[in-house]
Design a protein that fits this description.
five-stranded antiparallel sheet, six-stranded mixed sheet, 198 residues
């Protein structure tokens, strides 16, 4: 009986502790993490990052990794192109309970990062993995008097790149061609009118 009561109390304490520990959350934009483009295109992801901890959060890097790869223990690879980090390069830092959101815009390096699809990538191919964001936590503002919390931390979220066929636009006829057709009809009519007996 006492053992059951102690187990129940321990379970409640674990639930309270888990409820109190607000997580660090990363959501990609698009939310399913799936982007696509033709060979040679550059595509990317926006993000929403929430610091639910009691510490300051500073992003250290981001990676596109295959399943089973972890930037702490191995080199992250891409199968169909090259991934470039934006989120760390932009010095993203969040105070406790703060959130940050950016849509992807490669021209101003906004978003979590971008993926340049190789020119030789085969349409229909998919590079499926995860984006890993590595961050550090600080007790206090790291730019003022912040003390680092031991260790580097990371958060993963699934991501994929699908190679599409490059659709060639149907060329529009030039204005000169548009004029030649009706002009030819008018010339033919005039010729017939002249050839008819009067």
């Amino acid at each position: 009986m006492i053992r059951n009561l102690m187990g129940a109390i321990l379970g409640v304490l674990i639930l309270i502790t888990a409820a109190k520990a607000d997580p660090i959350t990363l959501t990609l934009i698009p939310s399913n993490g799936a982007v696509s483009g033709a060979p040679g295109d550059t595509v990317g992801w926006g993000f929403s990052l929430t610091n639910g901890s009691d510490n300051y959060l500073m992003v250290a890097n981001s990676y596109f990794c295959q399943a089973g790869e972890d930037p702490f223990f191995s080199t992250c690879t891409q199968l169909l192109g090259v991934y470039s980090d934006f989120i760390a390069a932009n010095g993203i830092m969040l105070a406790p309970s703060q959130s940050w959101m950016e849509t992807y815009d490669g021209t101003i390096m906004a978003g979590v990062g971008e993926y340049t699809i190789d020119n030789a990538a085969t349409p229909g191919s998919v590079d499926a993995g995860a984006i890993s964001v590595v961050y550090n936590l600080f007790e206090g503002d790291p730019f003022v008097d912040g003390i680092p919390v031991d260790g580097d931390f990371e958060i993963f979220t699934t991501a994929s790149v699908t190679v599409e066929d490059r659709i060639s636009p149907v060329p529009e006829p030039t204005p000169l061609l548009l004029l030649i057709g009706p002009l030819a009809v008018l010339i033919a009519r005039e010729r017939r009118r002249r050839e008819q007996p009067r």
